[in-house]
Specification:
Blueprint lengths: L1 H9 L13 H5 L6 H28 L1 H5 L16 H18 L5 H19 L7 H21 L5 H24 L16 H24 L1 H7 L8 H17 L6 H7 L1 H20 L1
Helix pairs in contact: 3-5, 3-6, 3-7, 6-7, 7-8, 8-9, 9-11, 11-13
């Protein structure tokens, strides 16, 4: 049981909440209460979770030397020596096989998006994480692939505005992660080489642009004629207030509290953001399904 726990920790299940982006098309396509569509989307979600688990393990294998010198990452199963390299490789293979098995029979475009996600993260782990700006854009692309995969698996169209909004939100979170890493760097320099090419001032400017882009594109999505036609209401614009508040709240946390390298932990630990997210989802469901 202990070794199973180490294997599970290697896959970082606490980060799997990011894969909830796969479920967004299920809600916005008015198919949330369709049992077949729900189970199909759930399979897609599980597939991305398993694939993400393998990706995290591969990333730990690539960053093993750096992680051993990091005050927090050195506690990860591989860096701490709780599991060996060969065990980590085997766990990654099992998770990838599980992702394939869990998604057998789903739309081929979903498999394409999942495959691109894995390939892109492999390239990120090997080299591209050291390329300034491109490192964060690859992270953002992963979120867009989740949304597109969720749409492909249900064979429903996805709004260009919601894809752009996803991109801006994920860029916002990605650069917030880089800011936390940069501010929390050791006195002898950051463990990530790419951080030497960033500055807090530059990242703060990018965060402002990404936050504005996320809010504007979501608002445009809410008022788009195609959105109003699908939702059968023109009241979706009122859900924008939760998006604006959530973005502002996260900006406040970035500047008012100790920076963190883990945006997911910040999002899931802040009660205000959790309540805002619940209210946003509830308002969307109320408008879309109950008008």
């Amino acid at each position: 049981m202990t070794r199973f726990w180490f294997y599970l920790r290697l896959a970082r299940p606490d980060q799997w909440v990011k894969n909830s982006f796969v479920l967004a098309p299920l809600i916005f396509s008015r198919e949330l209460f369709d049992a077949e569509a729900f189970l199909t989307a759930l399979r897609a979600f599980i597939g991305f979770c398993l694939a993400a688990g393998a990706v995290y393990g591969i990333n730990d294998l690539a960053d093993l030397a750096e992680d051993r010198g990091h005050p927090v990452k050195r506690l990860r199963p591989l860096a701490s020596g709780d599991i060996s390299r060969s065990e980590a490789v085997a766990v990654c293979a099992v998770f990838l096989a599980g992702a394939v098995i869990a998604t057998l029979g789903l739309h081929w475009k979903f498999h394409l998006s999942l495959g691109v996600y894995v390939l892109m993260n492999l390239l990120y782990s090997v080299k591209l994480k050291e390329v300034v700006l491109l490192d964060v854009f690859l992270i953002a692309s992963g979120f867009m692939l989740r949304v597109l995969g969720g749409a492909y698996v249900l064979d429903v169209p996805v709004s260009s505005w919601i894809v752009l909004c996803t991109m801006f939100i994920s860029l916002f979170l990605g650069f917030a992660k880089r800011r936390g890493e940069l501010v929390g760097s050791r006195a002898d320099g950051p463990e990530r080489k790419v951080l030497l090419l960033y500055s807090v001032g530059f990242i703060d400017q990018v965060l402002t642009i990404a936050a504005a882009g996320a809010v504007i594109t979501y608002a445009l999505y809410a008022v788009a004629p195609s959105t109003q036609a699908v939702f059968r209401t023109d009241k979706a614009i009122y859900t924008t207030v939760f998006v604006i508040y959530g973005v502002f709240r996260y900006l406040h946390l970035i500047h008012a509290q100790r920076p963190t390298e883990n945006p997911t932990a910040t999002l899931t630990a802040d009660t205000t953001i959790i309540i805002t997210g619940i209210l946003w989802i509830a308002s969307c469901i109320a408008l879309i399904y109950f008008n």
